[in-house]
Amino acid sequence: MPAAAPAFALDTAAAVERLLRFLSVNAITGHEGPIGKELAAALQEVGVPAKAITFDDAHTRIPEPTPIGNLIVKLPGTGKKGAKPILFMTHMDTVPLCAGAKPKIAGKRIVNELEGTTALGGDNRTGCAVLVTLAAELIKQNLPHPPITMLFTVREESGLFGAKHLNPADLGGSAVGFNFDGRSAADVIVGAIGADRWFVDIRGKAAHAGVAPEKGISATMVLALAMAEVYEGGWFGKVTKDGREGTSNVGLVGTADGKSAGDATNVVTDFVHVKGESRSHDAKFVREITAAYKTAFTNAAAKVKDHEGRAAKVKFTSRLDYVPFRLKSDAPVVKLAEVAIQKIGRTPNLRTTNGGLDANWMVKHGIPTVTFGAGQNEIHTVKEFVDLREFESACQLALALATAE
Ligand SMILES: [Zn+2]
């Protein structure tokens, strides 16, 4: 960080206080009620009128139980007439590992009193504190700005659901989006990977494994043969084909409700449920990886038969989790990001990521969106901490973006 005076006046102590406050709220993904309430209260305390703060109905469309919708805040423009609205966004949920975290300041960091036991939740309460601080400073300093929509999404960590199921018409016609969810304020994420999630039901037939194994059809064996084909074909783990790259993984193997597939050694296993995923920056390649799994399971099922020649059955379903995107380096949103980062004395660093972001859905909804960091570190681990220098830098950056001409 340069030692030069910051380009934007900012009540840093209040910003850090806010961050501690949000980090203290126990509200993991799918349980956003308490953080939604805390954010709405904090926004009103800094002068945002209650009628500017609403929750949408995205949670009624999210396939997993979710207590509230996305929080949407509209700040009317105070600058030039006809200025185009801009969107600031972040997610309000944290990963389940954060449950019960106790934040405390340690030098230029916020750490967890319970380090080694839970994660902290800097992912993504740092983003929440940046947005509320932006509202606070714009109001307090009476800074001219275009119309601003702020979006705090739910269920990012469990599948980008809040961003996926929002109604773009609720966002006030924003032409560009700035998402805060990451480590360094100077990093500009301009592209992210796409992913499929897929599910397989393998149906075999139970039989006594000692008395008449030939009468059974082993669903476990179908799984093993399918995995062998996938592995031999180079479709497992890191996948590289003709210069194209992606990844795949098998997650759950068991029953659909997470129990063990098969439970007795003397019974031929009649059912196995498998959950896996495929990822790539190339949308077509994601589908090809998923297709390779489907083929392997289908081939394997045909091979495993009982004594009368009846084969196993597989049902393979896949779902697009999110589409990859890549913004052009000369896109207006990228230019705005670069200029603002330079204004706060940093050097912009354009990057892509192998994880999915809410920005994947925003781009799909027609709002080109870049993502910056705000001090998260070692996320989703019990060593998580917040780098306060990066957090302050992100607060400055938000101000620079909101007040750019
Ligand atoms: Zn995050």
TrEMBL record:
<dbReference type="Pfam" id="PF07687">
    <property type="entry name" value="M20_dimer"/>
</dbReference>
<feature type="domain" description="Peptidase M20 dimerisation">
    <location>
        <begin position="194"/>
        <end position="303"/>
    </location>
</feature>
<keyword id="KW-0862">Zinc</keyword>
<dbReference type="InterPro" id="IPR036264">
    <property type="entry name" value="Bact_exopeptidase_dim_dom"/>
</dbReference>
<keyword id="KW-0378">Hydrolase</keyword>
<dbReference type="InterPro" id="IPR011650">
    <property type="entry name" value="Peptidase_M20_dimer"/>
</dbReference>
<protein>
    <submittedName>
        <fullName>M20/M25/M40 family metallo-hydrolase</fullName>
    </submittedName>
</protein>
<dbReference type="Pfam" id="PF01546">
    <property type="entry name" value="Peptidase_M20"/>
</dbReference>
<dbReference type="InterPro" id="IPR002933">
    <property type="entry name" value="Peptidase_M20"/>
</dbReference>
